[in-house]
Write a structure and sequence with these properties.
Helix content is about 30%, strand content about 20%. The protein is α/β, with parallel strands linked by helices. Helix 7 (about 125-130) runs parallel beside helix 8 and helix 9 crosses helix 10.
Length: about 270
């Protein structure tokens, strides 16, 4: 997570029944799926932490089963973000972050805070939430990514708040969610959600080419000129940034292959 900017592409989780035959080797036990998946892609977004609570031994196990350089992005627990008053999420946030996530150490990637599609932008309450986000947990640095899914966030005030607190806005390639490409943190996080199961690599080749070019642009510290922003007048400093790209939702059967294809395009092993 330090030094030169790195591009990492992955998928959501590593347990998905269709992958038993489409992605994993024949007769591979489920107990060995993380070991295999973490050697095919450099990062995985963990969705299970959104719905369930895990304890430190689980995070230690994940860290031990994955190779050096691998990174887990964890989706923040729903009890933190699915509430009417976000500023009251402090106790739930402390419980989630204190559950043992720091045991991942250098393999801990961004924490993804996902908000409901019905959650509207309330500047005061959203800033109260951002104030709760800690910079470290048990000595391990934390990076925070914000996935908002209501059109009311497409205003300059939202990226201004995210920038103030150093949080990254998730770029969602989605059929209905707002697309916000403002760079507000020291890393970039994109969720590609319009793939198809009948595409061998989840996305069409030309679209993968586009996303590879965008990822390279982000990593170089610049902003792609073909993605929409909430504030077109404010430019982020040109500094190298780690880039996380996840193939999620639609086209999930082929998501691991989309991640592998993107990594091939950006010149990674």
């Amino acid at each position: 997570m330090s030094g030169a900017a790195t591009i990492r592409a992955g998928m959501g989780g590593w347990t998905f029944e269709p992958w038993d035959t489409s992605f994993y080797p024949e007769k591979l036990s489920k107990a060995k799926q993380l070991h295999y998946a973490s050697r095919q892609v450099p990062s995985i977004e963990v969705n299970g932490t959104y719905y369930s609570s895990f304890k430190e031994p689980t995070f230690v196990k994940w860290a031990n089963e994955s190779p050096d350089g691998f990174v887990f992005s964890l989706k923040g627990n729903r009890f933190v973000t699915n509430r009417r008053v976000l500023g009251e999420a402090g106790e739930s946030m402390m419980r989630f972050l204190g559950s043992g996530v720091a045991a991942l150490g250098e393999k801990l990637g961004p924490i993804l805070w996902q908000f409901a599609p019905t959650k509207r932008f309330d500047p005061d309450d959203f800033e109260a939430f951002l104030k709760l986000l800690p910079e470290k947990q048990d000595g391990v640095r934390l990076r925070h990514a914000l996935e908002v899914r209501h059109a009311s966030f497409v205003v300059p005030e939202f990226p201004a708040l995210a920038r103030k607190y150093g949080a990254a806005i998730v770029y969602a390639d989605h059929a209905t969610y707002p697309a916000i490409a403002d760079i507000t943190g020291d890393f970039v996080y994109a969720r590609l959600q319009t793939g198809k199961d009948d595409n061998p690599d989840c996305y069409e080749p030309e679209r993968l080419d586009q996303w590879a070019a965008r990822a390279k642009t982000w990593a170089a510290g610049k902003a792609p000129d073909d993605l929409p922003k909430a504030d077109a007048t404010t430019a982020a400093p040109e500094l190298p940034r780690d880039v996380f790209v996840y193939f999620i939702t639609e086209g999930k059967v082929r998501a691991p292959f989309g991640a592998k294809a993107l990594m091939e395009r950006v010149g990674a092993d």
